[in-house]
Amino acid sequence: MPAFSHSIAVPPGIAGLMPNVGLLYGGGGINGPVGHGWSIQGVSAITRCPGIRAIDGTPRAVDNGASDKLCLDGQRLIQTDAGGSPVAFPQSNDALGGTGMVREYRTEKDSFARIRAYGAAAGTAANGPAYFKVWTKAGQVYEYGTNANTTANATITVQASGTAVSVWAVSRISDTLSNYIDFQYEQRDVAWGSGPTTGSPTLGKEWNLQEIRYTGTPTQQPMNRVQFIYSDRPDTPGSAQDRSEAYHQGKKNVSVRRLDAVRTYTNWAGNAAPYPAAAPAGAIKVKTTKLVYELGPVTKRSRVKTITECVGAAETQCLPPTSFSYAAGGNDAFQANLLFGTSPLATLTLHDPAGNYGVIPLDFNGDGKTDLLRWSTNPAENRLYASVGGGTFTQVPNGLGNGQFNITDQQLFGAAGCFFSMGR
After folding, report:
1. Which tens digits make up the pLDDT trace of 364-419?
2. Torsions phi, psi for 263 (to 5 deg)
3. How many Cβ atoms from other residues are within 10 Å of residue 43's Cβ?
4. In CA terms, which of 156, 268, 304, 355 is 20 to 30 Å from 218?
């Protein structure tokens, strides 16, 4: 997969301590705040991650509970004692918090960093630790989540109006001289997307990096800032959406914000509220990175079209833009499969905005072909179509006999998992 990185140049910090952020194109299925395939680079985080057979004995999915495993920027964390020796396997309660609790970790591939978890989020052990601290071999200290040192809003909850934590984002980086960088985040609950009935969407959680403040010292508030400016994407019901939503364990996350610009400032006196608070008198706008998007002709999702760097308060003195072009999808010989268009699937309701229908593509019968399960909130409307190749499908009857299938969790969100049986 091709990759491209656009660095966000920032004014220098104290003793070389300054943020290292950029915009990264990695392709894939990402549809986040920088459009399809793009992401903001340089934001460290501790997240929940699944257990695997090689380490834990059995694979285990994330369920937002105490038994979840933890990862630092994708690297698995292993529980250790204070001397760095691993706790006996299989390890348990990796993500459990506790009043006065201190738990130690190391990365699976040793990065010579000491990682500690502290306390309980919102005072409840089941929510996970309140925050983490990481001491690196370079002498820097990274703090994750919200603690007494920061007001970063960096403890990202699992769901709207919830208290269990899914992400502990970096809130502060400090060096051996106590110079520091602070990271600020926006968290919000958005009523958009699917819901129990048409026009009544459930709340979804959304969070984004909002501001970075640096050049802070024990006697001085940070004077340099990097602001990330967003707007909401248009809502286009009835057609392909640029907005997106995802569910896990019945918890909903949405992506509605889209990054419009990144602005850097120096000489920002005081510790005023983050954007959209106006810059104080005397603050100097150094550089603005502007993004222009286009919608993909097939997906209707945002794609970065140009990135332009401008200087000055008016943002009118600009370098020539960096432009990007994309394939529309498929190749020159791409065409719709005519057999699929004449099959029963062509007229079957596969999805609706209210969340009453959806599709799970999976090889249900183990023949190497991708079958399609059309699920419904009405169990009587569940349908399984087995692929026979060439774009054609055969419906598998519901039942418990040979050649039939049965789903135990018909609504796909009422139980811990979806189990099916299929006779032969």
Report:
1. 888 889 988 888 888 888 888 888 887 788 888 877 777 677 765 444 444 434 44
2. -115, 140
3. 16
4. 156
Side-chain-side CA neighbours of 409 within 13 Å: the count stands at: 8
Here the tokens at position 316 are 């009118």
Same domain, 404 and 317: no
Spatial contact of 91 and 115, defined as CB atoms under 8 Å apart: no
Q: Which domain holds residue 57?
A: 4-323
Residue with tokens 């106590």: 178
Strands (DSSP E) found in 319-403: 322-323, 357-362, 371-376, 383-389, 392-396
Mean pLDDT computed over every residue of the chain: 87
Model's pTM, two decimal places?
A: 0.79
Q: Judge if 302 and 372 occupy the same domain.
A: no
With contact defined as beta carbons under 8 Å apart, do 170 and 201 qualify?
no
Burial (Cβ within 10 Å: 0-12, 13-18, ≥19) of residue 197: exposed
Residue 126 backbone dihedrals phi, psi, to 5 degrees: -65, -20
Q: Which of 292, 323, 354 is the last residue of a domain?
A: 323
Taking the C-alpha atoms of residue 128 and residue 69, their distance in angstroms, rounded to an integer, is 11
Which residue do the tokens 């140049």 mark? 9
The rounded distance, in Å, linking the Cα atoms of 364 and 16 is: 55
